[in-house]
Amino acid sequence: MYLYTTFIEMIWPYDDRGRLVGEDVCEPDPDKAQIVKLDPPDVLTTAEARRLLDSFDQAASGIRRKTHGADKNGGLAPPAAGPPMNRCREIIWR
Predict the structure, then answer these.
(1) Strand duo 34-37 + 9-11: pairing
(2) Residue 22 belongs to what domain range?
């Protein structure tokens, strides 16, 4: 497993009515990015992550129910997964 560290720029253009119309995400200087090989003991397995997240989710779900009301899923819906990040990409919504 490797850790990729870099600087990114994000720009969110708005139209004249203040509505979000797109997203620009760029890696301006990929030559300055760092790639580090991680030691296996420093990497969580999916089973370890699930165990940790389950305990966090149980605690957080009570807070969400108190502050936002519970729905059939027990709280807020998770965010939808977006497209994979490329070196530079632009998304326009219409």
Answers:
(1) unpaired
(2) 2-69+83-92
